[in-house]
């Protein structure tokens, strides 16, 4: 039986400030080998693959495109109205704040995709956490990103884990090149990230702002 496609979810946390870390919404990523079932490693021989030893890897799969938008919205951090550890009670106004999270959209960021919590779906697509991004080994992932943070109007980006990319597709702020495109997409701006799924990408990985 063929293995399920690579599943990627990211949990969004901001890298720039504590508040942004609180308001980020993301997901995790799970990636599997196409058409293969997990196999036990030979006794005494680790089966782990060094992803940094695959410089000659060439994509051989399909290109998967995702339209992801950073949205700002009201988020209730304690929707049940209580602290599970202390038992303290809170009103909705005490636990609701303006958050920023990722949502998946139809092409050209037309409208948010409907929630799909099935085994191959994108998840709740509620912004926190962000949508599940799926791929298989050999695939190329293209994430068309748009910053729609209408409340804070901060710059945002997407930095992945577990996939291969160059500096133009890192999404992380670089002290030696702070103006590199894709590291801080301004409010209203867009950027397309391209990531490659290697054999070292198998598993679940986060992405974040």
Keywords:
mainly beta, Immunoglobulin-like, 4-stranded mixed sheet, 209 residues, globular, 5% helix
How is this structure best described in words?
With 209 residues, the chain is mainly beta. Helix content is 5%, strand content 30%. It has helices at residues 18-23, 92-95, and strands at residues 6-10, 27-31, 63-76, 96-105, 132-135, 140-148, 159-160, 190-196, 203-208. A five-stranded antiparallel beta sheet has the order 5-1-2-9-7, with no helix packed on it. The chain has a four-stranded mixed beta sheet with strand order 4-3-6-8.
Brief account:
Helix content is 5%, strand content 30%.
| Helix/strand structural class | mainly beta
Biggest sheet layout: 5 strands, antiparallel
On the 0-100 scale, what is the average pLDDT? Answer: 82
H/E element order = EHEEHEEEEEE
Provide the gyration radius in Å. Answer: 18 Å
- Can you tell me the residue ranges where pLDDT is under 50 for at least 5 consecutive residues? 1-24, 36-42
Number of strands: 9
Task: State the CATH superfamily name.
Answer: Cupredoxins -  blue copper proteins
* The CATH topology: Immunoglobulin-like
Which CATH class applies here?
Answer: Mainly Beta
Q: How large is the share of residues in beta strands?
A: 25-35%
**Distance separating the two termini:** 36 Å
Q: What is the tally of helical segments?
A: 2
Shape: globular
The helix fraction, in percent, is under 10%
Count of individual domains: 1
Spatial ordering of strands, largest sheet: 5-1-2-9-7
């Amino acid at each position: 039986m063929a293995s399920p496609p690579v599943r990627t979810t990211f949990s969004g946390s901001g890298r720039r400030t504590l508040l942004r870390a609180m308001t980020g919404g993301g997901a995790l990523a799970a990636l599997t080998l196409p058409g293969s079932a997990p196999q036990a490693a030979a006794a005494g021989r680790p089966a782990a693959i060094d992803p940094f030893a695959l410089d000659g890897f060439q994509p051989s799969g399909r290109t998967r495109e995702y339209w992801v938008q950073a949205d700002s919205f009201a988020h209730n951090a304690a929707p049940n109205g209580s602290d599970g550890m202390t038992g303290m009670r809170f009103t909705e106004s005490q636990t609701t704040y303006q958050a920023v999270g990722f949502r998946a959209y139809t092409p050209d960021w037309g409208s948010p995709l409907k929630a799909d919590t099935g085994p191959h779906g994108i998840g709740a697509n509620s912004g926190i956490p962000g949508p599940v991004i799926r791929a298989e080994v050999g695939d190329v992932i293209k994430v068309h990103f748009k910053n729609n943070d209408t409340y804070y109007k901060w710059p945002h980006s997407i930095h992945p884990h577990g996939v291969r990319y160059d500096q133009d597709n890192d999404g992380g702020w670089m002290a030696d090149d702070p103006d590199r495109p894709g590291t801080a997409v301004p409010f209203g701006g867009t950027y397309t990230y391209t990531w490659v799924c290697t054999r070292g990408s198998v598993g679940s990985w986060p992405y974040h702002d």
